[in-house]
Amino acid sequence: xxxxNSTRLLLILGILFLFFSVGASMRxxxxxxxxxYAEVARxxxxxxxxxxxxxxxxxxPDKPPFxxxxxxxxQNGLGETTVAALLPSxxxxxxxLYVTFLLGRELYDEETGLLSMWVCATYLLFLLVSxxxxxxxxxxxxxxxxxYLIIRHLNLDADDPKGLYGxxxxxxxxxxxxxxVGLIVPILAFLPLLLMDGREMLRRLxxxxxxxxxxxxxLLWLVPAAAAGGREYLTEILFHQSAGRVVHSFSHAKxxxxxxxxxxxxxxxxxxxxxxxxVPGIRSALSSxxxxxxxxxxxxxxxxLFFSFVSGKIAIYLLPILPGLALLTGRxxxxxxxxxxxxxxxxxxxxALSAFFCAIGAIALLVLGKQGDIPLPLLFRLPGCxxxxxxxxxxxxxxxxIRPLPSIxxxxxxxxxxxxxxxxxxxxxxxxxxxxxxxSEAIRTLQGxxxxxxxxxxDLRYLSFYLHSPYRKLNTPPEINDFLQGxxxxxxxxxxxxxxxxxxxxxxxxxxxxxxxxxxTYLLLQAGSEEVLP
Length: 534
Hints:
Blueprint: H1 2-24, H2 33-47, E1 54-55, E2 58-59, H3 66-78, H4 82-107, H5 110-121, H6 124-129, H7 136-155, H8 162-178, H9 181-197, H10 199-205, H11 207-247, H12 258-266, H13 280-286, H14 290-309, H15 322-338, H16 344-368, H17 378-399, H18 404-434, H19 437-447, E3 453-456, H20 464-467, E4 471-474, H21 477-484, E5 490-494, H22 498-504, E6 509-517, E7 520-527
Parallel strand pairs: 3-4, 3-5
Antiparallel strand pairs: 1-2, 5-7, 6-7
Helix pairs in contact: 1-4, 1-5, 1-18, 2-3, 3-4, 4-5, 4-7, 4-15, 5-15, 7-8, 7-9, 8-9, 8-11, 9-14, 13-15, 14-15, 16-17, 17-18
């Protein structure tokens, strides 16, 4: 049984790896986030300064460096490609699934671990975030692995601290991946257990040595970074970018109840299955181990409550609770497999709700494809629509019967097929509207290596990833003339601003290139008397 489950586990991980890799190789990086992060890593490699991140050759205090270190290492091995940039997210996602399996096995049993891994692997949020260049999957992996090592240490009778100390070091890495939340989530997960078990648990956690280990890694980075960037950098990274986002966010501000509103949609297709905990027998399955139950509920509910109080809110911030939710859902599904008649009404309701969400998704894909700034013909939306329509019908049919295992497999297969259709069909189609690579190639053809480029009221500093030279944003007419009077350079202007640019420029301008990106048309302009723009 163990060998069979392990084989299935490895097979699922291998299929997902191929799935992500194929999708990653079929598009360019998008802006601003993907190109921004890739450029920070590239400049690390170019400058040799691994402590003080830079973007567009200026200090970048928005994020700590650990994710950029991994990006830079991937670029060293695979070049400045989309696959290299996505590799940390893809590998982190696959490792996260394995750790979810280990955690489920540690808290309950191997079957719960396997089902929890399946649930985690087929969350839409997981599938989508694992295919973008962001540090969130890595961050979630570090936190989840730390939680696993610490809970395993608490469950063991022996006082061997190796796993515990490893967990603390991973929390330290989480701190230099995405800031203080890397410490807050573990505290929220273990605080109720600490209050319940008292001094004995406090002794086993060795909080004094733990805090030293946690802070060791940030200090190893912050000391040389502060020496290079000065007090201004230290203040920005520690207070404005970290504490400032919590207390008074300068972006993504949302009301307290925002996450409660989006929760059912954010954690599709599995959120309806949390209704199963309305069944006494399934609740008792969760409660079979008091420590495990308290730990999971504290992890999920405590983190959800904390992020609800944080001023800035975007959906992806809740990614750290994804493995915990998967474990809760996996535990409910395990009980259901062993007792098919238990909770059949709520199980049918959960399947019917999943069918409903699939139907709504198909309608949204049809309607949204006709709107927005990126044209997407019906032919390219059709595979995703067919997956959702077929899934909706199949789930509704299954809601009329009680066959837990086929239903659980179907619920997970639908998002896999949906995201597969998006990765292999839709994303390559819209790539030209989201990529700056064609414009960059044209600029380098015109000006060679390290071109001189500026834009009028356009922030395209992400071009630096392709150009290997700084990009300058111009905000006033005198700045336009100052730029044009220097060495021959290229000016980028929005088509809507061309009249103002012409009036501001002292010399005639000629168009040497035109590119569409999203809903904007960018013109490449050079000073010269040939073919003045009409």
